[in-house]
Amino acid sequence: MISLAGRDxxxxxxxxxxxxxxxxxxxxxxxxxxxxxxxxxxxxKVLLDNSSADLWVVQKDTLGPYAEPSSIYDDTxxxxxxxxxxxxxxxxxxxxxxxxxxxxxVRTMVTGVTAGESxxxxxxxxxxxxxxxxxxxxxxVADIASGFALGDRLQIRRNHYTVVGLxxxxxxxxxxxxxxxxxKDAQEAQFLKDNDAIHQQQRRTAANPAFNRPQVxxxxxxxxxxxxxxxxVNAVLVQIESGHRAEDVAESIxxxxxxxxxxxxxxxxxxxxxxxxxxxxxxxxxxxxLSVVSSAIVAFIIYxxxxxxxxxxxxxxxxxxxxxxxxxxxxxxxxALGVIGFVVGKITATLLMAPIFPKYVLLEPxxxxxxxxxxxxxxxxxxxxxxxAALKVDxxxxxxx
Length: 401
Description:
Layout: H1 2-11, H2 13-51, E1 55-58, E2 72-73, H3 76-81, E3 86-101, E4 104-113, E5 129-130, E6 139-143, E7 153-156, E8 159-167, E9 178-182, H4 183-191, H5 195-207, H6 219-226, E10 232-233, E11 235-240, H7 246-257, E12 260-263, H8 264-275, H9 277-307, H10 310-318, H11 323-356, H12 365-382, H13 384-391, H14 397-400
Parallel strand pairs: 4-9, 6-8
Antiparallel strand pairs: 1-11, 1-12, 2-10, 3-4, 3-11, 5-8, 6-9, 7-8
């Protein structure tokens, strides 16, 4: 029956191959959708890995700094640094925004990092070109996915920065490339109001009688001065000393500093379980729809091929061929169609879709193995309609027409 199935495929090889290629494109999209989800999870984990932090200290009762806005005073790190089990602390800010370079805008996550050396929490752990930030202002390190090159001039808010280093796979949980700038510059970009806003606020403050009463001398000047500084950061990144449990140190900070603290596992749950949850549901629905469409295509083509050889099947029945032999013939053709489709789909996803897709696509071998067996199951189930039609053929049709 293997030879009969093969001969029948060769008889209609054009229809069979082109159908397999069409099915392959659907399978390629399905594999790519699974790879997109894997890539989103990997982006979230890479973001946490590259921060080099064991704990994230954020504003109380928030999910910051990646999932919700968070603002804490930038001197908080000093009191945390002196607590038992804390090895190193560093302020950090995160701001997703458009960065202008020449005539184009690139959506990035601008990250403000504390002055220090390589290994400081928040810093890019390695570079592929150039050097780390050494000046207190107007230097930047960018991820190569941004398309920036060494020496490029970037505009962030009112200031301009020179790209002095390039890194790789430093992205936000949404896949946006990261741009690292000095902390003071990042605080200004995120928290400082523009000159017009400050001027208008000063006029409103001066016009408020409460600030001009004799019993509060100097209060107006203090308020105006406070509008020109930005003493906030989004989080404090903490590295703990060896021999201490992250949860124990986190609980101590929560108790004494009245702040919210997340461990690595808790932050990963926020990024994957909350930020990516909706996207995961959408991708799952697409996978279901694509599986149904693929099943319909396989069922249709196998059914069509079966109807095209009704007389041949009748002849086989007339000469005493068993039903299981006919079932095997049809099922072998369905599986062959699935194999062709999977090979085309795997090549399409690996060589075409993954490299050009705007988001990171992670194609894991286990997903391909699961996908292959899923395609085989779909093809076997899709052949049932054709098998039922073949088994109903009357052997008399072999001599009736």
